[in-house]
Design goal:
By secondary structure, this protein is mainly alpha-helical. Helix content is 71%, strand content 0%. It has 14 helices and no strands. The chain starts with a helix and ends with a helix.
Length: 222
């Protein structure tokens, strides 16, 4: 209740941190998800996410349809800390949110889940996403998932288009290269080797650093 009525950010942070450390009050926080004040709902969602409260998963999924995008972002962040099927489905749905900021956060959250379902959702969404920031977030998450389908998609995304009137943006290809470097599977490293002499300077540099990073980490592991 004090968190709901706190007037300053510093005061809210004290109550927020206290509740998080106590790991208590889940039922009360779930109740606050239905509050009329957007900031109360956001705070409750943030806390439930910090607690990884599985009991709140279905209610948090409902918040993905909230009128305020700040609440939707909080719900996405909270669901990213949960592992249920409903959470992954909800995050996949949020890839089509009207607010790019929500879509970016949903893409990053799906990367953390590292499931084939998440990879499929990201790949399908990339076919229609037009905002570069969201595209790059999706590609980065595919690199984290590193499933065979994800690597195949990233390999194709990193390659030059070849069509005169519809060329891929260099930044898009660079994002795909970095994602392949993050994956570091044999297939990903092979795809990077094939791009070492690419015509685009930015792509070549990204490939160089991705390959070098993989070699350095391999030595460290040895």
């Amino acid at each position: 209740e004090q968190l709901s009525t706190a007037q300053s950010l510093a005061e809210r942070r004290v109550y927020f941190d206290s509740l998080r450390k106590m790991n208590a009050g889940v039922k009360v926080l779930i109740h606050h998800l239905g509050d009329a004040r957007w900031y109360v709902v956001r705070n409750a969602a943030d806390l439930l996410g910090e607690m990884a409260a599985a009991d709140a998963e279905s209610r948090l999924t409902e918040l993905l349809q909230h009128d305020d995008d700040r609440v939707r972002r909080a719900a996405v962040s909270a669901l990213s800390k949960m592992t249920g099927t409903a959470a992954v489905k909800g995050l996949a749905t949020s890839l089509d949110d009207d607010a790019p900021g929500v879509r970016v956060r949903a893409a990053a959250a799906l990367g953390n889940s590292k499931t084939p379902a998440a990879a499929n959702a990201l790949i399908k969404h990339l076919e229609r996403e037009e905002v570069a920031e969201v595209q790059h977030a999706c590609l980065a998450s595919l690199g984290k998932i590193a499933s065979p389908d994800a690597i195949r998609f990233l390999t194709k995304a990193a390659q030059p288009d070849g069509r005169l009137f519809k060329r891929k943006a260099t930044a898009y290809r660079v994002a795909a290269v970095r994602a392949l470097g993050e994956a570091r599977t044999p297939a990903a490293m092979g795809a990077l080797q094939n791009l070492l002499h690419d015509k685009e300077k930015d792509v070549r540099e990204a490939v160089f650093w991705a390959v070098r990073s993989g070699k350095t980490e391999g030595k460290n592991e040895e």
